[in-house]
Design goal:
There is one protein chain. The chain folds into 2 domains: 209 residues, Vaccinia Virus protein VP39 (Rossmann fold, 3-Layer(aba) Sandwich); 99 residues, DNA polymerase, domain 1. 41% of the residues lie in helices and 17% in strands. It has an 8-stranded mixed sheet, sandwiched between helices. α1 crosses α2 and α9 packs across α10. The longest helix is centred in the C-terminal third of the chain and has 15 residues. The protein is globular. It catalyses: cytidine(1402) in 16S rRNA + S-adenosyl-L-methionine = N(4)-methylcytidine(1402) in 16S rRNA + S-adenosyl-L-homocysteine + H(+). InterPro entries: RsmH, SAM-dep_MeTrfase_MraW_recog, SAM-dependent_MTases_sf. Keywords: Cytoplasm, Methyltransferase, rRNA processing, S-adenosyl-L-methionine, Transferase. Its EC number is 2.1.1.199.
Amino acid sequence: MMALQPGQDGSKPRHISVLRDEAVDALAPVDGGVYIDGTFGAGGYSRAILDMADAHVIGIDRDVEAVAGAATLVDQAGGRLMVVEGRFGDLKSIVQELGVDRVDGVVLDVGVSSMQLDTAERGFSFRFDGPLDMRMGREGPSAADLVNELAEKDLASLIRALGEERRANAVAKAVVAERANGRIESTAQLARICEAVIGRIPDQIHPATRTFQALRIAVNDELGELLRALFAAEEVLSPGGRLAVVSFHSLEDRIVKTFLAERSRTTPNVSRHAPATFAATPTFVPIVRSATPGEEEMARNPRARSARLRAAERTDAAARGAGDPMAYGVPQLSALAAFMERA
């Protein structure tokens, strides 16, 4: 695990944290508290926590460039901030490795950062021509590997399930036809394929949006990471500790909503198709059931338009541990899982 120490060179932040004030208010930082910023990015949430209380923050990011870019804020924090390279789904093991025995809050800003989107060579965006990569941590198969090597039906299933693209079959068919002429290696090439299939409609999202989203989620296992982070937060949070999650599309938000609803349920699960089951003791109490950005924030930061915040407070009930991903809305794509494991 790489940890950023004061004195290392870093770059200036370019990412605007969405719903920052609302998320940090939900955490309610206190002096002496320990907080985890599980998606550090440019440090917007970490900076706000440090400004609000004389607390300590552990920032986590799987992108080595984000870790290196944290140097200035680490120096300014005077020993109250540590930034480590890692996945937020592993936050329990990170906390254990650091010897932290109390966590008072966890904040997650799920999805891709503006720094990644705005860097052409990272291959996240169809707005720039760059290599079809999309890997946050630079390890494992790239988006190009999936596009060029998955069978047509498996590629269609991926685009449909993770991108919610209605024309998934047509896009996959066009991709397979194109790759017969040689590997698809650039973002511009894939964007042109999507546009030829779906067409451009004024005032609508770009026709490649959902396909790019699906590939990015698949390459980085974003939904699996999110669910593992929620399970881990339940394990590490002290009683009274708080969890705040900002999501950006329906797949992410469905997982967060389902997890918090299931973990905070106090009534039995009653179904006419099965015997009633008594609810386990809640491990969370809702604080913010759903919050969205105001008009001013959306005007200032277009990325905020689809954002949603949910937050809850940890009770003193024992953590329940991990559960079946499908029960929380994580699509299970066996061909994708086999490909990623094989690669």
